[in-house]
TrEMBL record:
Keywords: Acyltransferase, Transferase. It holds the Pfam family Citrate_synt. PANTHER family: CITRATE SYNTHASE (PTHR11739), CITRATE SYNTHASE, MITOCHONDRIAL (PTHR11739:SF8). This is citrate synthase (unknown stereospecificity). It comes from Ilyomonas limi. The lineage of its organism: Bacteria, Pseudomonadati, Bacteroidota, Chitinophagia, Chitinophagales.
Length: 435
């Protein structure tokens, strides 16, 4: 058993004891009330899940085990001469609950390198799809093809004891995370770079290797990938991708099946696909206005047009956050440091000045501020990654860290099958009539 497993198991044993005690003493306490409106409105505001890896506060934004994004940028180990945190560190933090040392992060990097081999049949399955297929469809198909490798599915078939589930789940989580950069880069090179592939570089870290295999060796892009993979990793338990992964995993579907389910949710335009929608929307605006740097007045008019056509302004709004997303701010800082004069990045900043007052004026939008997806695409375009349909795949590779760390926790804490109660409107009416 390696250090990650040992430390995770020790923490899980301690947490199990804490939860047992907590439920013994407080198990009947009420944590909230549910109104009729809430069950018709996407269960917004209902506390109904436990997710140990991160917690989202409407005002403070996301915290991973108590650490905010700026704190993580300062405290997590970095690559040699690197400026941004290594995402391996946030994976460790989510599993072990404490900040890793440089050696801990190096250990995870080496484990992921060792486990990164992708069997040939996965590439054959991806190759069988037409080139016009959306990259997220190729990605999830590749993950499904990789399910043949699941340790948990094999162990379950042999009759593993419940108390040991966590270990093959953790092996699957690490195998899958290790293999995702290769699958993502393969899809990118197949679809956009003439099917000319780049073999992994065994000396690079997880995010650096992804950049390398995609064909982007600039230090700036590698730094961006490390930041991107860190800040997109997790956003507590109720968002569509985290919740779907957790839900499917609760049926004891293995991590490959569960993660694929979650990523099908990430591929929706109200969730992770918003990062492609933002750049598509800006490109269309620039084309329509015939300029690379539209004025704030022009942006304002275009926003109003978008809204009048019954569409959302992509990258703005959030189901929980009620302020500018700290992940947007982290990317803005990156832009100021690396590319302050880039017209696309400047347009993102101009949109940031123009959109919130317009959305506020509509009166119905609970959060007029930008989310993570409002900024990411412009940074990628700066380094030449213009193929915006691919952006959600990068989000998916990062999100694996959070949702798979959560699956490890789900099984280590023995969480049961998830099965909330649903009602019909007829049943609601009868209930209101007292019948
Ligand atoms: N542009 C226009 N209208 C918006 C809006 C936006 N950016 N954000 C919310 N609204 C509208 C909603 O569509 C809803 O309208 P109706 O009442 O007519 O149906 C109303 O405002 C109230 O919505 P809300 O309670 O403020 O927001 P929700 O919790 O229902 O939805 C979200 C949250 C993110 C789906 C929504 O803000 C949205 O569609 N944003 C644009 C897409 C986007 O950026 N998604 C990425 C989110 C981050 C991520 O998961 O990656």
């Amino acid at each position: 058993m390696g250090i990650l497993k040992e430390r995770f198991k020790a923490k899980a044993d301690a947490d199990n004891a804490t939860i047992k005690e907590l439920l013994k003493n407080h198990g009947t306490k009420k944590i909230g009330e549910v109104t009729l409106s809430q069950i018709y409105q996407g269960m917004r505001g209902i506390t109904g899940l436990v997710s140990e890896t991160s917690l989202l506060d409407a005002q403070d934004g996301i915290r991973f085990r108590g650490y905010s994004i700026p704190e993580l940028q300062a405290k997590l180990p970095k690559a040699p001469n690197g400026t941004e945190p290594l995402p391996e560190g946030i994976f460790y933090l989510m599993l072990v609950g404490e900040l890793p040392t440089e050696e801990d992060v190096q250990y995870i990097t080496s484990v992921l390198q060792r486990r990164s081999h992708v069997p040939n049949h996965v590439f054959s399955v991806i190759d069988a799809l037409p080139l016009s297929t959306h990259p997220m469809t190729m990605f999830v198909t590749g993950v499904m093809a990789l399910q043949t490798e699941s340790n948990f599915a094999k162990a379950y078939a042999k009759g593993i004891s419940k108390k040991d589930y966590w270990e093959p789940i953790m092996d699957d989580a690490m195998d899958l995370i290790a293999r995702l950069p290769r699958i993502a880069a393969y899809i990118y090179r197949r679809k956009y770079k003439n099917n000319e592939h780049i073999e992994p570089n065994g000396l690079l870290d997880w995010a650096g290797n992804l950049a390398y295999m995609m064909g982007y060796e600039q230090p700036g892009f590698m730094a961006l990938m490390r930041l991107y993979m860190t800040i997109h990793a997790d956003h507590e338990g109720g968002n569509v991708s985290a919740h779907a992964t957790h839900l499917v995993g609760s049926a004891l579907s293995d991590p490959y099946l569960s993660y694929a389910a979650g990523m099908n949710g990430l591929a929706g335009p109200l969730h992770g696909l918003a990062n492609q929608e933002v750049i598509k929307w800006i490109f269309e605006m620039r084309k329509e206005l015939g300029t690379d740097l539209p004025t704030k007045e022009q942006i304002g008019e275009y926003v109003k047009k978008t809204l009048s056509e019954g569409k959302v302004v992509p990258g703005y709004g959030h189901a929980v956050l009620r302020r500018t997303d700290p992940r947007f701010e982290a990317q803005m800082e990156f832009g100021k440091k690396h590319m302050p004069d880039d017209p696309l990045v400047q347009t993102v900043w101009n949109i940031y000045e123009v959109v919130p007052p317009i959305l506020k004026s509509l009166g119905k939008i609970k959060n007029p501020w930008p989310n993570v997806d409002a900024h990411s695409g412009a940074l990628l375009v700066h380094y030449g990654l213009v193929e915006y349909e691919f952006y959600t795949v990068l989000f998916a590779v990062s999100r694996a860290l959070g949702v798979l760390a959560n699956l490890c926790w789900d099984r280590a804490l023995g969480f049961p099958l998830e099965r909330p109660k649903s009602v019909t409107t007829r049943a609601v009416k009868l209930w209101l009539e007292g019948k």
